[in-house]
Amino acid sequence: MAAFWQQRGRRQENGGLGSVIDGLGSVFDVLLANARLVLGVSGAAVLAIATLAVKRLIDRATSPRDEGDPKAEQKSLEESWQDLVKTTPKPPKKQRREDLSEPLLSPAQPVVPGEAPKPRGCSAPLGDPLVKPSPLRCLTLQEKLMSHSSQLAVPEIQASLVPQLARSICTQLQNFLRSKFPELPFGRLFLSGALLDGLEVLAADNIHLMLPVVLDTGLWSLISGEDTVVRNPQYWMIKRIDLGYFPRGCSPWDRFIVGRYLSSSVINETLHKLLVASINWPAIGGLLGCAIHPVVASRELKLEVKHDQVELSITLFPVVEMEDKVLLSVPPEGLVENLWLESFYRAEVSRVKELDAGDSGARQLCLRILQGVCRSQPSLHKLGGSPVTHVILHLSDTASDWAEESLADRFQQVLEELVASLEKGVLPSYFNPKINLFSGLLEEEIDEMGFVLYRAISEPEVLLK
Description:
It contains eleven helices and eleven strands. The protein is α+β, with helices and mostly antiparallel strands and about 475 residues long. Among the domains are: about 190 residues, 2-Layer Sandwich (Beta Polymerase, domain 2), CATH 3.30.460; about 120 residues, Poly(a)-polymerase, middle domain (Orthogonal Bundle), CATH 1.10.1410.40. Strands 1, 2, 3, 4, 7, 8, 9, 10 and 11 form a nine-stranded mixed sheet that branches. Helix 7 packs parallel to helix 9 and helix 10 runs antiparallel to helix 11. The chain is globular.
C-alpha cells in the first residue's frame, strides 16, 4: 500500500508540479510586492521570512534525489520544516491575569540580524524591581469617625445667611407684637438652636425664636407635674396666687388664665391667629428678599421661609423663666391645656462645653457625629437632641477619658448605653432622674430604634454611611 501512494505521488509530480510551482511563485511575488503597503514593515518582514521558508521547502521537494533512499527523502522533508519553524518569529506570550499590574507588551518590532531584541513593555531599568500597587488599607473606626465628622459641617452660605435672616424676621415680629399688644410685657425675642451653639450638622434648616413671657413672681408660682393629673415631672403648671389681695386684672397675663392657671394652650392659640391672619408676611418677605408663610395646620407656631439660597423653618416658643427653670409653651397632646414643658437644652449645652473645656475632651465632637447619625437615619430622629446629650453626660461621670484619641471607644459606649436604655424603655434625665426621656416614645418606635442600634454595636460603620 505504501508503494502505491509513492508511485501516485511521482506521477503527479511529473505531470503538474511544474505548473503549480510557477503559479505559487507568481502569487508570492504579488504578496511580497504589496505586503509592506498592506501589512506594514513588521508584517512584511514576517511574510518574507515565511515565504522564503516555503520556497526552500518546494525547492527541496522538486530537486533530484535518490529514489531508492526513502530515509534521505524523509530527512530532507524534516529539514525543510525545521527551517520553516526556526525562521518564523514566535508571537509574544500573552499576559496572564496575575501579571496585569505590569505594562502590556508593545506591538512586535522588526528583528534586525545581529542586534539583540529591545526590551518591550517597561521603561524602567532592567535591574529595578517592578513596583506593585499596595492594597487598600482598612480604616479603623477612629479614622472613619474623624473622616465622617469633616462631612457634617453646615454649608458656609447657610451658616451665615440663616442667622441673619432669622434675626431680621425676629425684629419684624418683635415690632408687630409691641404695636399689637402694648399691654403685654413680652421680653426681647432671641434666637436659639444647635446652629448658634456650633452643634448643628449637615444643614441649617431650622431655628428657634424664643419669646419671653415676663411674669410677676409675686403673683405666680410653680406646681410640679408630679402633683397634677399627668404625673409627669417634666411638665409644670403656673398658678395664679393671692387672688384675694390681687384680684384678676392685676396681672396683664390674667386674660390667659384657665382655672387659676396660666394656660400655655390659650397663649399659643392667640399667637397662632396673630401669625396666620394679622401679620403681612408677603410685605415682610419682599423687604427681606424671601417668601414667608405661616404653617396653618401645625400645632406649633411655625414659619416656613424660602430664600434663593436656603429653605428655613422657624419655630416660635413662648418661654417662662422662673425659679431657675426654663418652661416652654409646649403642652402635651390631649385635653390638658395648662402644662408647660421644662427644657434642659441650655443646661445641656452649657454642661457639655464646660466638661470639654475642663479636660480638652471630644464630647461635642461625639455629640455632633451622633446628631448627624440621628438626622440621616429616619428611624432615629427622635433620639437626636436631648436623649443623646444626656447619655453623653451620664457617661462623663463614669468614663474620664474623653480625649480625641478615645473617640471610637466613647462612641461605641454611647451606642451600648442607648441600646440598654431602649431595652428598659427608660432614660433618666441627667438633671432630674425622675424624668424618663423615653416616656413619650411608642413601643414600635423603641423596638425599631433598638434594632438599628443593636446592629450598629457590632458594625458601627453602618451608621456612618
